[in-house]
Amino acid sequence: MTITSTPRRLSSDLPPRPPESTDAPAETPAARPLRADGAAALLVEHVSKRFKPGRKKKVVTAVDDVSLRVERGEVYGILGANGGGKSTLIRLVSTLLTLDSGRIEVFGHDVTRDEMAVKRLINRVSVDAAFFKKLSPYENLVYAARLYGLPARDARREAERILARLGIARTRLGEPLEQMSRGMQQKVAIARAILTSPTLLLLDEPTTGLDPRSKLDVQAFIEDLREHHDATVLLTTHDLAEADRLCDRLAILDRGQLVVEGTPDELKARVQREHGLPPTLDSVFMTWTGRSLDDDIDDDDKDGA
Fold first, then answer.
1. Strand arrangement of the beta sheet that strand 60-70 belongs to
2. Residue 287: band (very low, low, confident or very high) from pLDDT cuts 50, 70, 90
3. Domains along the chain with CATH numbers
């Protein structure tokens, strides 16, 4: 897993959070209203990105005129087959790729004009791990925290808390990462991202390759972020059950285009009502893409993963 090294966010970069009524009943995850309080957490408008793999290969449009809006406090999921454009979109939001057309804003900051302000607000976790593998989880997290300007004492305490929440026993905090499973390394990458308190957390298939117990630990941690912290999550996943469990809304990308968007319940009800199919996300995905989530896009389109 890789993570972008970005400065710690500044309070001035964020719009104020609106006051919440003390008279309202406690929210449940399913009924939690979105905080549509001005600037969107993420605004994507008519965004396109093309690649030319080689002189003799055709230009690949990885993201094709995509528009979406993610509200503050929302977990927004992006589904798509391998090569469908999910990871390219994440990289565009995280400023790792430049736009060919369109615009992206993170809490009102344009990713092109205000790149450093955007980097203060985000952190990204991807499938491929990148650590100092001779060092322990604890040492990796404390090092990352110091890069972000966090005090050493606070960093140590918070690192222990986050790692414990992800199911990593205290007795293992001193072991070299190279001696740990891929699943354990993925948990450490997620912990490292959370340690910097990003306001927009970009999770690119964070549970891929995890064993069932580790996957549940990570999913529970994302739910905790959603309910108890002022964080917004953009999540790509191949796990439809995970998307159903975690996401407030979903978008499906097919060959770089956004083909359908809605809450999981809305999409399942729609596929049953309009197509007479079982109300499942499998039916939703097959209906709007014509393929299984495990299918790959043609080889020429792989750059759009």
1. 60-70, 42-51, 101-106, 109-110
2. very high
3. 38-132+201-304 (3.40.50.300)
